[in-house]
Task: structure prediction
Amino acid sequence: AQRVTQPEKLLSVFKGAPVELKCNYSYSGSPELFWYVQYSRQRLQLLLRHISRESIKGFTADLNKGETSFHLKKPFAQEEDSAMYYCALRRPNFNKFYFGSGTKLNVKP
Amino acid sequence: SAVISQKPSRDICQRGTSLTIQCQVDSQVTMMFWYRQQPGQSLTLIATANQGSEATYESGFVIDKFPISRPNLTFSTLTVSNMSPEDSSIYLCSATDRGDSYEQYFGPGTRLTVT
Result:
């Protein structure tokens, strides 16, 4: 069975500090990993996915198959990054997504 | 992309009653999903709504409790039947469109409180 774990419910950092939101997964095959974000009073939306290997809003995430991790990183946090972040796993060819419990990022001024 | 709306946005219901939540997408989509998000917890997939056939339910969810309809490529409903306080949650509808099947678009959610 697949599982996505986000060990931190809340992460508080100061503006300009680096931030890393942790995500670990368990899946026997080769999953696709995603980060979704939910800003206050907005709906859940895609932030980035591991296949594209791109940087969105300064965030990057690298899939580490050896450690089964997909941590989200940003070198300099901004106040507008404050939001709920969800790591998600998609089983290839199944089009089903499995979400972690989410991490609330609070960037303090 | 796809824009999803849900009705109602919130409701307070009595134990033992049923509530039907509607999900409308502004374009045709291949797959639609229903999730439950209980306070402080993750999104849990309830079922995949298949157009023209019965929904596919995840472990722990059954059709008698959560009947789902999907009459066309832009609309789906989820009914929460014989509600109990444990059903109090946010229910989310999502969809993937034909072109970008890796991305899910989410509705704003329906906040259900059962008293």
About this structure: Chain A has a mean pLDDT of 91. The CA atoms of residues 48 and 67 of chain A lie 20 Å apart. The interface with chain B takes residues 4, 9, 32, 34, 36, 43-46, 49, 51, 86, 90, 95-102 of chain A (CB under 8 Å).
